[in-house]
Specification:
The chain is an alpha/beta fold and 219 residues long. The protein is 47% helix and 16% strand. It has 10 helices and 8 strands. The strands form 2 sheets. Strands 5-4-1-6-7-8 form a 6-stranded parallel β-sheet, sandwiched between helices. It has a two-stranded antiparallel ribbon with strand order 2-3. The protein is globular.
């Protein structure tokens, strides 16, 4: 029986694409580079802010990442100011969270976004005290797809791995679940496609949030 659902944030709970593209475009302009459009943003994100910055720099010709350190600092500054620009929950997410609460199923956010960024996005867009735990990037803890943070969550909840469902939209998410040996759900409303989710061994692939309830009742 599933007792907790762990969600990725960007592309799963919240549509943050406009904010991510905007903040990175401002960063690139600071160095005289071109914008990072939303389509490229979809594939540059998912493994933390530093990777997002580095991929954007390489795209702009800085193949030796000469600006990497400074650009990371500039990006974080812009992100702290504009991370909520046009951010909104995907259709059906708030209803799903309400239903999970009625079923006494715990909910957790696990993201490669900074801890501050996770808290700011969730508390402002979805609300405070909605989730049982919020896990962002933390010093000394490897980022997804390393399973360390997911295993920490399972331990903190006091649950077994077969009581956890992990929900995300990218290969990084599916590989995190696989490494932690928990069931995974790949969502098609996010940043990546069915092919990527299938190739990275998603246990379930869904089109709408309400299908998560069907999966829980069917396990």
């Amino acid at each position: 029986m599933i007792k907790a659902v762990v969600f990725d944030l960007d592309g799963t709970l919240l549509n943050t694409l406009d904010a991510l593209s905007y903040c990175m475009s401002l960063t690139m302009k600071y160095f005289g580079f071109k914008d990072i459009d939303k389509e490229h943003t979809k594939y540059f994100v998912g493994e933390g802010a530093q990777k997002f910055v580095d991929r954007s720099l390489i795209y702009n010709g800085d193949t030796h990442l000469e600006f990497s350190k400074e650009a990371y600092e500039v990006y974080n500054d812009f992100f702290s100011k504009y991370c909520l620009v046009d951010v909104k929950p995907y259709e059906g997410i708030t209803e799903l969270l309400d239903e999970l609460k009625k079923l006494n199923i715990k909910t957790v956010v696990l993201s490669n976004k900074s801890q501050e960024g996770v808290e700011k996005n969730i508390n402002n867009i979805i609300g405070e005290n909605v989730f049982d735990l919020l896990y962002g990037e933390r010093e000394g803890i490897p980022k997804k797809p390393d399973p360390t943070s997911l295993n920490m969550i399972i331990k903190e909840l006091g649950l077994s791995k077969d009581e956890i469902l992990y929900v995300g939209d990218t290969a990084t998410d599916m590989l995190t679940a696989l490494a932690a040996e928990v069931k995974s759900v790949g969502v098609l409303w996010g940043f990546r496609d069915k092919k990527e989710l299938r190739e990275n061994k998603a246990d379930f692939i869904i089109n709408t949030p309400e299908e998560i309830i069907d999966i829980i009742k069917g396990i």
